[in-house]
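Subject: Peptide/nickel transport system permease protein

B.,
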Amino acid sequence: MLTYTIRRIGIAIPTLILIALTIFLLLELAPGDPMAQVPLTVPAEVKQQMRLALGLGEPLPLRFWKWSVQVFWIEPQVFVDWLTRDSWLLGWLPDTNLYDGRLRVISWQTRGPVFDIIVQRLPQTLWVVGLAYVVGVLIAIPIGIISAYRQYSWFDNAGTFVSMIGFSVPPFFSGVLVIVIFSVQLGWFPSIYDTTHRVTDWDSFVLQFKQMIMPVMVLALQTTAQISRYMRASMLDNFGQDYVRTARAKGLRERSVVLVHVLRNSMIPVVTVVALGVPAIFGGAIITEQVFKVNGIGQLFITALQANDLPMVLTVAFIFAVLIIVFNLIADLLYGILDPRIRYD
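Prediction pasted inline below.
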């Protein structure tokens, strides 16, 4: 498995470079100019100096090369220095001091390092999107198991109905709907997510919990609908296999047959959906964060698009591509753990 992992990582590096080049070229072909928002009173020669300062006057291959060096070489050095200096995990190690002060990826909009801004926004996204995905998976797997075991029962029919709603209703509609019902009409929860709120006591914790309920509920509904259907279908497919009849004929308890033998084999296709759903849920959070005004990665991406902040847009889109490749690799490795017959060497 180690050889397979190293080989996949070796393939992933040129793949990521190709993806980054594709995104870079698409952004270059897109209409818009970051200097369009500069006031008309600014002289033309000053605008030209500003364009040169932003790197807009350099050839396209040189700009992509500089961005690649910054992302693949300079930013990892900054990250390693942070790990050995400020992190609680490796902060006890001697400082590496790898970063020598060279130019990092700079946002055209904020004039600050792009990765520092992403790190500032990431906790908000993880709190809402990450928690919603975990809740959705934890709810979907038991629903899928029970629905398959009690096929065509009232529970299965109810689960199918809820799943169809989750599939049919997009987050931008369900988000507005729950705001109108639970915030405007009933007044139970705040309609806007306050990202500046800090939990210091029980009352502040209750307020944080209340403002997270609606965005988490909207995202978790979509996740639950998708994964529960895959779980149900995979369980039903394995219930009809010969090894299940053999296990029951040997006198194994029904709990062992379902939760040990059938569940383990049924998780193989579900693992793919769960692993590849992580990047997808981050992409879906772009809309949800706009609806609930969550100041996270999704809203940062939309703001950068509106401001023609190409370094920020390119970097965030590249991070989404990295997530897809990483979790795809994790899914492949989990296959070998769930099914001993799968070998990678």
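The longest helix spans residues 254-292.

T.
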